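BUG: 3D viewer hangs when loading the predicted structure for this chain

Environment: internal workstation, default settings.
Expected: structure renders.
Actual: progress bar stalls at 90%.

Input used:
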Amino acid sequence: MLRRRLWTAAGLAFVAIGAVGVVLPLLPTVPFLLLALFCFARGNPAWEQHLLSHPKYGPPLRQWRERRAISRRAKIAALSAMAISVAVTALSAGWPWVMVPLGVMAISGTWIWTRAE
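Structure tokens produced before the viewer hung:
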């Protein structure tokens, strides 16, 4: 019983972080909802189904769960946000600090782009 409550609490925390990502442009929403989905599957299956049936966020969550797929639109949005982050770091912090977001973008951007659509 305690484990289910902890999984549910973690799921709620990830939903809250994802909700913040709705209004903050550089904080992603769907990855946190995927984590919430994982937690709810172990703590509260009814809330898991609620997330999967959500009109806006349900389709990308189901695509990921069924086919490990990311839509082309989401890929472009993620890579664009990463590119903006690299540009802002280059303009504000300069060399060598720009190498940090550039490295993150190279690794995670490649991973994102190579997922199925």
